[in-house]
Amino acid sequence: MTDRLHEPPLVGTGSIGTQPGMEMTEIQAGVADHTITTYEHGLEVRARSQWSYARARFFRHRLAMVGIVLLIVIFVAGAFAGQIAPYDPTLPSADITVSPTFAGHHFFGTDQIGRDYFSRTLYGIRATEQVSLLVAGIASLIGILIGACSGYFGGWIDNLLMRTTDLFLVVPALAVLLVAAKYLGHGSPVRLALLLGLLFWTNIARIVRGSFLSLKEKEYVEAAKASGSGNFRIMFRHILPNTIGPIVVAATLLTGLAILNESTISFLGFGLDLSLGTLIADGQAAGLNLWWLVTMPGLTIVLIILCVNFIGDGLRDALDPTQRRIRA
Amino acid sequence: MPEPLLSIRNLVVEFATEDGIVQAVDGVTYDVFPGEVLGIVGESGSGKSVSTMTLLGLIPQPPGKVVSGEAIFDGRDLLKLSKKAMRDVRGSEVAMVFQDPMTSLNPVLTIGYQLGEAIKVHHKDLKDGQVKQKVIDLLRLVGVPNPERRYEQYPHEFSGGMRQRAMIAMSISNSPKLLIADEPTTALDVTIQAQILEVLKEAQAETNAATILITHDLGLVAELADRVLVMYAGKVVENGDVHTIFSNPRHPYTIGLMESLPRVDVDEEWLRPIPGSPPSLINRPPGCPFHPRCFLSQGRERCRTDEPPLRPIDESRHKTACHFAEELRDHVIGSRREVAGTST
User: Cys-Cys crosslink for A263: which of A55, A227, A277, B56, Cβ 3.0 to 4.6 Å?
Assistant: First the structure.
């Protein structure tokens, strides 16, 4: 390894006074001269950190790179829907049921009352993206807190928290969501995101707990304890950064799951007023003749989910330290 | 005689395992005086580490359990401290150097951060700049070259020797009164061991901390320790000044340990281990725990039935737990050479 190069040269004492009756002063003196010598770095090989390897692996993962570029384009377009959209998404116009065209400014066509579907899709992306990112954030937060406490403290705390997690896992998510969305979340992205986040933290909690279980036995945790660090400092400053990899992967994939669920709820009419799911529902009501009303927002969802999953895949491969070679 | 800084009395620590209760530490008593280096030697599993980890509350409970005993440190019983009080002691009054520097540093945090944290935990009023300066000074003290740059680096950019230096810097960062070094050189190769030894000495001289040096390297003890404690099967079997122990051991186990070392002044073909292996700590044999392996016992009744207490011999500071220690008065290390040699 390259590390060895930093060491001062060997000191000429084979064994350190292993003889009981031996004179020790000589050895002491011999060692003393050398140890304090400081060495400038003559020969140096740049040590690469785990992160720089991961970054390199991620950037070489072709699908993930395609995914991240596309997703950024889509999300930026959604975020700036107000600026980019050529038409007001809610304003009817005289151009009714125009099919998708690149000539007539209605890229995704219009519906029966002449609303521009490209603009509507952009606004739909905006709502969907708000919800999904919020869900990923909320779920990660809850999952990390619960998983960390569970894994670190163990014992009855672990039992209580993990049985609670099991409870959330066996709950039929869709039914609960529909009921709750009807009374609590209708029309508000933030409240819908809260609902989804409160249901989808379980996976992250389990991942974090597992990591904490193994990491809390590490010697550096004991060393931190021995230097007087408190539990919360150890949990969040020492252990948590070591678990970031799996958390990021899980959170990324959760974003995709959140988009799907939000769309489902909106499609069923319990969610937002204008999101990709709502658009598909509207289009479905319009019938097969206006095929683009279902297809355009539907393809958008498919594209987003594909991108998210590719990114998740790429992250998983990149953050797996046992893997040095890249496939893709 | 000065007041001891730490006095451990009759410490008993047990671990519950599937096979039964393991008595890892069984009635250990010793003192550590200010500024001295106490070497604790013994085989693996003799309770060296457990007896000191207990002081900082670092044994996992359960399965571990402190059954009885007290550890008076600076007027307080460490075993009875609240969690909060224990946290204040850890790292500031009693600090530890761990065995394996490869795993004792957190891979995702910089060396500077980790050392700085050890200081900040106990000195919340210090400004970040002051802490950084102190960390850099500490790194320089332990002989880490180019400390300003090293401060920003991660553990994987440090070699084993450098990491152990950083660990030592961390342990002395709050000028502890007691330093516990748990096999500080075991994980390093021999040439680095010599350097680390020197750093430890310097660190000890700098802070004048009393040091407990846990090791199975008798050479290290001879180099560094003022007094020696020999442990076997969870008990202290001999205890005395380093010179007395090395020149005049009064316990057959200590003698066995020393004779098992290879010598450079005699031409030999074989190592001479102590025959047998340490007893199971689950079902302790009655009598002296060492009697099945003892060359002195030779099947004597008393060794098999009576457990020998730790008693003073020759002088008050030299204690041994052997019924027949007097017979060892004229024992010359290595005199059993021929006997041992033929038996292998």
Answer: A277
